[in-house]
Specification:
Layout lengths: L4 E18 L5 E19 L4 E5 L14 H13 L5 E6 L10 H17 L5 H11 L3 H6 L2 E5 L4 E4 L19 H11 L11 H9 L2 H7 L1 E2 L2 H7 L2 H11 L4
Parallel strand pairs: 1-7, 3-4
Antiparallel strand pairs: 1-2, 2-4, 2-5, 5-6
Helix pairs in contact: 1-2, 1-3, 2-3, 5-8, 6-7
């Protein structure tokens, strides 16, 4: 329809994810290198009376379509900031797997912010939208910004990383997701009694700038991998098979 707004938002990879101690606010201190990849969710924002939501195609198990959905909360937050009624229908077209660590929910929230801002003519600045994104969740700010970035704080404080070149990734998607809080809880259990420190990503960033895929492959790391494997041991066989087939 003429007034519909269609927004695409990308999935992300964490090429480096170092998790520090748990903070007083319940989040963990992070140092991460985000990379947006060409796997997208689409959010279509349409004029409506009140706020509603649907999903294009088949209903996806585990995907809430109401106030528990981050995109819904993004629309409500934007309306409250702008002093406008939250009148919109959000239709999600999902390509990013749910609960896969690829920031699908955050991508939808970022798309909802951009789409509702355009539909309602609120004309918030990019800085205002980023502030709302930071309030919504740790990955939403990067989903709004895209590209390649260093994330600190709980992941919401971004610094662009200047590196060029194309990178090709294989995503092996499991037949079920892992809730992020459960993975962090398992990490905390594994680290009980330890005092974790944050690892810097300087060498990885240099490898990205040098466009050296083998170097990037050696340096890529994710502190949540071991707790994820502990919760779903079958993931270890997938990782091993990828390496056996020549993945870097």
């Amino acid at each position: 329809m003429k007034n519909d707004v269609l927004v695409r938002a990308p999935a992300k990879l964490n090429l480096h994810l170092s998790v520090g101690p748990r903070r007083a606010d319940g989040f963990h201190e992070l140092v991460t290198v985000y990379l947006a990849v060409s796997l997208y969710d689409e959010v279509t924002v349409r004029p409506a009376d009140g706020l509603s939501m649907s999903v294009a195609g088949d209903r996806l198990p585990g995907l809430p379509l109401g106030a528990d959905n981050l995109a819904w909360r993004a629309a409500e937050l934007l309306a409250a900031r702008a002093g406008a009624p939250a009148d919109a229908h959000l239709e999600l077209a999902k390509q990013i797997p749910i609960a896969a660590g690829l920031a699908g929910g955050s991508a939808d929230a970022a798309a909802a912010l951009v789409g509702c801002d355009r539909l309602w003519g609120t004309r918030l600045s990019r800085a205002d939208l980023l502030e709302l994104a930071e309030e919504l969740g740790s990955d939403v700010a990067f989903s709004l910004a895209g590209g390649l970035a260093l994330g600190t704080g709980r992941g919401e404080l971004l610094t662009s990383v200047l590196a060029t070149g194309d990178w090709h990734w294989v995503l092996a998607v499991a037949d079920g997701g892992l809730a992020t809080p459960a993975v962090y809880a398992e990490l905390d259990r594994q680290r009980a009694g330890q005092r974790p420190s944050l690892k810097p990503p300087d060498q990885l960033i240099n490898a990205l700038r040098a466009r050296d895929a083998r170097w990037v492959g050696r340096l890529a790391c994710n502190d949540l991998q071991e707790p994820a494997v502990a919760l779903r041991p079958g993931l270890r066989a997938t990782l091993r098979e990828g390496a056996d087939l020549g993945a870097l």
